[in-house]
Specification:
Helix content is 51%, strand content 17%. The protein is an alpha+beta fold. It is globular and about 65 Å long. This is AraC-like DNA-binding protein.
């Protein structure tokens, strides 16, 4: 999997939801904070989003990556129509990329800059309005596509404003190469030097650049990602601990069990039981 797919897959929980909403000129509503990421794409009319204040017109997209509480209101004299979606995410172990995104991302209508976002949002709008056969299969798939394009656009916008942080790291091909390598092969016996070789940098230069951009030393992030992979395998598979240890880069189930308990404060077996019960 690629980096962004990995990150979304590691945080995604439950089933995302979306609706095609209509708002009369006098309509307004408060939206409480949630564990998910909320988004809106205006189809017609104008929508006022408060906290902070933003007015969105046709084709504009608004994303709350952290599920921040906010208010919505029709900002015009005619009815407004918009897509309203929520993508549920596990906030107990958020990936640093999502933490790096601002609380509110606004993406003005710009089909030339983000054509895939506008195309996929249009397809989702049409599918929600059609009530055709197969809708229950098509809508979740299109919702995934729209959400990925929203995050891609948000990362691109944020990378242009900052020289450090995860968004900038993904835009920096040197560091992105090392991140792709450790995500594709987390079980490999990586060292700072071997990760630096993936980036085409010396050990010292790579360590400095990686830490400055990502906010963690290379091996600290590698350990965090290995245990994140392990937690997801515990939640979604029946693999024995020895197999999970091997897939996540630990030489034995004993070493893995100790590392997992240090990180999560609970044994791997108990973590799996809680996930199954939940």
């Amino acid at each position: 999997m690629d980096l962004l797919s990995d990150l979304i897959g590691a945080m995604r929980v439950g089933r995302p939801t979306v609706s095609l909403a209509a708002a009369d000129p006098s309509w307004g509503s408060g939206v409480p904070a949630s564990d998910g990421a909320r988004f809106y794409v205006v189809i017609a009319g104008r929508l006022h989003v408060n906290e902070p204040a933003v007015t969105a017109g046709p084709g504009d997209a608004v994303l709350f990556p952290h599920g921040t509480a906010h208010t919505l209101a029709n900002a015009g004299e005619s009815p407004a129509t918009f897509l309203s979606g929520e993508y549920r995410l596990d906030r107990a172990r958020p990936h640093p990329l999502f933490q790096d995104l601002p609380g509110l991302v606004t993406l003005p209508a710009n089909p030339e800059r983000y054509p895939a976002l506008h195309t996929s949002a249009g397809l989702l709008r049409d599918e929600l309005g059609a009530h055709a056969y197969g809708r229950d299969v098509v809508v979740p798939a299109l919702l995934d596509v729209v959400f990925v394009h929203l995050i891609r656009a948000s990362v691109s916008e944020s990378a242009g404003l900052r020289s450090t942080g995860w968004c900038a790291a993904l835009a920096d091909e040197t560091i992105a190469r090392s991140l792709r390598a450790l995500h594709e092969r987390p079980a490999d016996p990586w060292t700072v030097a071997s990760l630096g070789a993936q980036a085409g940098l010396s050990r010292a230069a790579f360590a400095r650049r990686f830490t400055a951009m990502v906010g963690q030393p290379p091996l600290t992030y590698l350990t965090w990602w290995r245990l994140t992979v392990a937690a997801r395998l515990l939640q979604t598979t029946d693999l024995p601990l020895s197999a999970i240890a091997s897939r996540s880069g630990y030489g034995s189930a004993y070493a893995f069990a100790n590392a997992f308990k240090r990180e999560f404060g609970i044994s791997a077996g108990r973590f799996r039981q809680r996930a199954a019960a939940g």
